[in-house]
Amino acid sequence: MKKSVLITGSTGFVGRRIARDLLNDGYKVYSLVFEGEPAEGTIPVEGDITRPATLDIPNIDSLVHCAGILESSHAPDDLMNRVNMEGTKNITNECFKAGIKNMVFMSTISAVGPQGTDRAPINENFQLRPSDGYGRSKMKAENFLKAFQIDNDIDISVIRPPVLFGEGMNPDSSAMKTFLNVKSGDFPLIDRGIHTFNFLYVGNLSHSIRLLLKRNRGFEIYNVNEGPYNAKDIISAISNEIGTKKGYRAYPNSLFFIYHKLSILSSSISRKPPRLSFTKYQALTTDVWKMDHTKIAEKIGYKPVYSLSEGVKRTIAFYEWSNS
User: Fold this and answer.
1) Least packed by Cβ within 10 Å: which of 1, 85, 211, 293?
2) Are 74 and 52 in contact (CB under 8 A)?
3) How crowded is residue 100: how many other Cβ atoms within 10 Å of its Cβ?
């Protein structure tokens, strides 16, 4: 008998890839969609995670919860909490009532906050200190799920990916901006590009989730990543595949810091998101987001099935960006 799974966010970048891969694995795949929204080859279940009365969950085996408001949306904190925390609470409660005993929740490394160093990368035991509303909303969802699993007979895995890239990525995402900046030769290179640059191909994330659906036990948190890479690795992989000569502009750290400060000042006047937030400045000039992802390798046997060059090649082919 086929295993069945419900995916939230299945019409988005990540959920669409997971749904496709699970269908290929032989799962019976259900998708939570808004009324009238296409389910793209899966079985539609109409509902809204922010409105529990709309959730009529069928009897299925597992839940993969990907739906959420992203950091790149610059949404207000109250909306982040309503979708990312309260929405998680609603879908978990309704799925548990329907008999689901296995769940994978997509959180983010932002729930931990920028605490890593080159010698002490972020692992799953770090105290949570998120630095933005997105990270705080995911932290609250994680805390809810941990308490929920203690009180109920359900296996829950929380995964914390970094920046995700691949076919169909969000047009406003950090990953999309990275590709476009390298394509135009404008990626800001600081300190010769030696600092950590997390970049996870969506196919590798999907692979980790498919493993977890088979090996989920109790409550566990896993960092999911590939690499480690630095900025120069990413620039080289993208520019080589696109066919650009350079892909970057080198800046001294001091000048880049001034640009960051001017960006913040401009943002306070225009009331628009800064072009270079402190979080983005940190990401390009330090190793605060360096991750340790050995736990998921050791406990469930995860290792990336796509190399950096292969993920980049597939992404560039999808968008037809190659100059060759």
Assistant:
1) 1
2) no
3) 23
